């Protein structure tokens, strides 16, 4: 076998495709197969395409681009697979192999390089983004833009997403960011809090409430200053080398704190942190360090439950609550019970599980922007199940899911009767933390 074919097999992880027996158990749980109805847009179809590359039956790699790009990466197929196919690993490798060989136009190449290398990994740039959005709100430019309807002319339906963005934190609030918060009462754990890049820039309030809730239940909380982006957006976009470099930077930063746990509040980020051990498994000098990091990585709901939950919660009357499950929390981190347990601990609420609760909402990072029409088909199906619950509150545990559900509320004209909140916002309000 020539070297080129062997290289393709290795890069596309051809050997792992042989685990797939093409049984079809993945089809009912795959959102894109259900919404698009194409075999090439199913997990087993995508695996078969990769397999054909490894066997030399596909030589034009561009054939794989649409099927792989339209995959949400929700990884529900892994939970349904009876033979343990590592679909996420195959998808990640195939995307990286395609990106390595693709010639992007200059504007696209420049945007990718800027966003992946200069924006997401930079704390200063992400802070500047948060400051800029606050200024956009406070100066009245936002009202002017909305009134003029210029936002509707922005590409990728950005105007639709701008309309449901949370209020930005002020520069004054950001200037008083925590580096350490002492546990209230007896200390149960010492934790290091992962702020994330987009979470810290656009969802600063949720991070702030997360830190205060952790302290409330008995955690000494450290916010590591040298942390950076988790690398999820990079890995999902085929920039796997950049994702590895960010993982190493985070491992070094968090090793400075002798924490019991590394805590996050975003399902997508949490899944990436959890998978650092997989990401760096082939690098001997990083393998053990990455395994230690991943073992310590926990969703905030897990820590709140470990500490006994949040006490002295005020009663919420006449609120029917449903929970939009984060795919990456469910399918990668396997965190399913804790958020529901926390919700059911709030006095007075009626918790109603929606049908097909584990099905993706169609957000998937920036999928809903770059594949808007496909994303909205999936969202509309999700909203159909949400409406059946007659819920007045939709709880999420991931920023992408949160924005997607807000878009769904607007699309269904439910903004006067239904609201979407992050679990931490809802818990903090019940605990009287503002």
Overall shape: globular
**Lateral arrangement of strands in the main beta sheet:** 1-3-2-4-5
Helical residues, percent: 40-55%
**Ends: how far apart?**
64 Å
The SS-based structural class is: alpha/beta
Indicate the low-confidence ranges by residue numbers.
Answer: none
Total tally of structural domains:
4
Q: Assess the beta-strand content as a share of residues.
A: 5-15%
Please state the average pLDDT score: 94
What is the number of helical segments per DSSP (H or I, 4+ residues)?
26
Number-wise, the strands total 9
Sheet bearing the most strands, described? 5 strands, mixed
Rg over CA atoms: 22 Å
GO molecular function: 4 iron, 4 sulfur cluster binding; glycolate dehydrogenase activity; metal ion binding
InterPro entries: 4Fe4S_Fe-S-bd, 4Fe4S_Fe_S_CS, Cys_rich_dom, Glc_ox_4Fe-4S, Helical_ferredxn
Pfam families: CCG (PF02754), Fer4_8 (PF13183)
Function: Component of a complex that catalyzes the oxidation of glycolate to glyoxylate.
